[in-house]
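User: Fold this; tokens only.

Assistant: Input:
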Amino acid sequence: MNKPEVARLIGYISAGFDNRKLSEATVDVWSEELAEVHADDALQAVRNHFRKPSPRDYLSLDVLLEQIRVDTRQTPTAIEEDVRSAKARGLIEKSWPKRDPLPRAVAEQLARARAEFAQTAAAIEAGVIDAPRALTVGAVGQPMPQGEP
């Protein structure tokens, strides 16, 4: 995020939630810490924070950064889950380190794949899709070889 985006974000927080004073010093500090964050991710993190059952009344920078990490799946557990899932889907090389965050393009591709899977699962549950695809389950339903008794 650049300084104008950070100023708009802090203004949004102030106007809608905690009535903070917007200062150049605050914009400078927040700009340094949010330099690698996309503005949409930061705005969504603000919304998600204040939609919690018991949000903090005053949103501090550290709490915002943690919310962004959670929302963008950048916690250690989420990173490892995403790497495993991306490897299983062939989105990244098997040699990708399990604790390295996915590149943004791969993370977006994984999110789309998960959303498509969830949509298909919901359609199956709702009965919209009768037989999503044939499953190969090995010898199920095949006669078993008869051995000697």
